[in-house]
Amino acid sequence: MNNHEKLVATVGHIYYPLDLTTNLVAYLYDRYIRESHNVTGYFIAFKKKVASKLSFDPRLKANDDWDFGFRALKILGSSRLYYNYYVAVFVSSRLIKKKGYLNYLLENLGIIRTIPKPYSQL
Prior knowledge:
By secondary structure, the chain is α+β, with helices and mostly antiparallel strands.
């Protein structure tokens, strides 16, 4: 296996409905704060050869994407993870509205911690 081969990839995001402030904050987070192992459920791609090591944990009711990213970092190392914030996918902003903008930001910056809930129960 090539030691420089990227095995897990993720990209940035654009919230819809389109809102300039929310998307500016999302871009700044993607560009300056987010790291390659902070993968999110809206877009994660990984090579078939690592699927047996890195499948999602079905016991987790929420945040299984973050768990996946931290395990990928631990098992593969940061050189095998690829993150491109210039490429983005559309993501619903419903979660921000349900949690509240300030709580959402503080939680994602790691300033506050909450007990994860499945998104369907928010």
